[in-house]
Amino acid sequence: MASGATSRSEDEESLAGQKRGSAPTSGTVPKRRSSSRFIKRKKFDDELVESSLAKSSSRAKGAGGAEPARCSGSEPSSGEKKKVSKSVAAPVAPSPVPPHPGLAKRVKKSKQAPPVTKDLGRWKPADDLLLINAVLQTNDLTSVHLGVKFSCRFNLREIQERWYALLYDPVISKLACQAMRQLHPEAIAAIQSKVLFSKAEEQLLTKSSQPTLDTFQELLHKHPDVFYPARTAKALQLHWQLMKQYYLLDDQTVQPLPKGDQVLNFSDAEDALDDNKLKDMRDEVLEHELTVADRRQKREIRQLEQELHKWQVLVDSITGMSSPDFDSQTLAVLRGRMVRYLMRSREITLGRATKDNQIDVDLALEGPAWKISRKQGVIKLKNNGDFFIANEGRRPIYIDGRPVLGGNKWKLNNNSVVEIASLRFVFLINQDLIALIKAEAAKLAQQ
Fold it and tell me: CA triplet 113, 114, 120: central angle to 5 degrees?
């Protein structure tokens, strides 16, 4: 049995050698056979190792003497398994064969990728130009951070990093120079007008006392090497006025702070303030008491407003200083807080007037009347001189606090309080005219 196995392995090796010899030497790799079935068989572990080695060897050898890869569907023999295990265990030295042309292209493309630069979008060309001019004038990045107003709020570290990048980073400096060259001349002039003043310029300005525009123009002509080229006489005058405001001129002396509470100017007061003392500590107990007191006062005001018309009637009746409510044709008056309705006929209707519904007394003139019916009630004068109100709406009508439901009626007396949907009225009767009406009714009854 052992001799039979060895002879069979030798036959397989000889067949494999014939296949290798019969393989074409043109350098082309034959196409891999693949199954046409939709569901294909999975590879075993030894087949995965063998196929990956076959692919790597075919790429490494290139066109010369490439062995065809084993198909995924064929099963490996035992001799081939031994060869695969030996080749995996022993490390193979790299052959001096030139690399594949596709790999060379990939390497070239990866080398050509430009380096990524950071923080290019936040710094604008105007900021770079302003930074360069300010540093050239002052030679101090701290002064630039405190005195220059950029388009964004940069801290001192960001300004230092940007200045060093403009000096030593070739990519950032090249991009910044290209962007600054594309700025409009008007934008460049506006940037140059914001450049800080150097110490030499301020020393020349402090020596002049009571100057004019001609004085500053002479300074520009006498010292062209000291002043910045974009300086104008007007700009020098404005900076001189600013220095005078802060007592920075030679002929000025800063006065000491007074011992009392009086302060000379705003800058001295700002320096004397303590920020920790400005924090307002919340007193929750006090806020609660103020809220309760405010609510109580509002409630009292609302109650007084609701009772105002009652007291007004009493005051008017005592003082007699109110305008006369009645004339020879007015039977009664329905007085509200805003409007006074006169009753000059024996029957009037109360409600809310609309385009299709016209009534005698429109309660919407007094206040919000969207809860009042179009025809809320009717006030009638009987022959005996009594007034009655009939409720014809959905909501009740309150007469002196008593509800009158829909379909019912109630007698109205003098100074009766009529309440309809939170609107209050006082019903006043013309006693003289009603007395005449009663007398005529009595005469007719006797006849």
Answer: 145
Region of residue 42 (phi > 0: left; psi between -120 and 50: alpha; otherwise: beta): beta
What is the distance between the alpha carbons of residues 253 and 244, in angstroms, rounded to a whole number? 10
Q: H-helix or E-strand containing 173?
A: helix 170-181
Q: How many angstroms separate the CA atoms of 266 and 232, rounded? A: 30
Q: Are 394 and 421 in contact (CB under 8 A)?
A: no
Could you tell me if 219 and 227 are in contact, meaning their C-beta atoms sit under 8 angstroms apart? yes
CA distances from 307 to 125, 198, 310, 425, 429 (A): 73, 77, 5, 11, 20
Q: 3-state SS of the chain: helix, strand, coil percent to 5?
A: 50, 10, 40
What is the total residue count of the chain? 447
Q: What's the token pair of residue 319?
A: 């003082």
DSSP string, 313-327: HHHHHHH--SPP---
The amino acid occupying position 408 is N
Sign of the alpha-carbon dihedral angle for 22, 24, 29, 30: negative
Rounded CA-CA distance 183/271 in Å is 41
- Predicted confidence (pLDDT) per residue in 172-225, tens digit: 999 999 999 999 999 999 998 889 999 889 888 888 778 888 888 998 999 989
Q: What is the pLDDT of residue 161?
A: 94
pLDDT tens-digit readout, 234-287: 998 899 888 888 888 887 776 665 655 555 567 777 777 776 666 667 788 888
